[in-house]
Amino acid sequence: MAATSIKLRPWDSAEHLKTEEEMVLYLEACLEDGDAALIAHALGVIAKARGMTQLARDTGLSRESLYKAQSSEGNPEFATVMKVVKALGFQLHASPAA
Fold first, then answer.
1. I need a surface site. Which of 25, 28, 88, 91 has the fewest CB within 10 A?
2. pTM greater than 0.85
3. Helix, strand, or coil here: 56?
4. pLDDT (tens digit, 9 = 90+) per residue, 57-77?
């Protein structure tokens, strides 16, 4: 019997964020976790889903610096995070912890 070969490809969350609501819910879930690296990654995933080139234009940052800031090795400054949040059309809100 011949072995069947299954071709797998890496999971890309950006491919599954189609609507504004899905993007907001994804970011909210990451914010609830509270892990700064996860939040930066989530912003990167949303940026990719929307289009990194447009985000670079809207923030005034290069695509390369955006990819680096949102990578697992990146540690973006808070000002960069806020530029990305604003360019994506999001607002961060504070509320008492449950």
1. 91
2. no
3. helix
4. 999 999 888 888 877 777 888
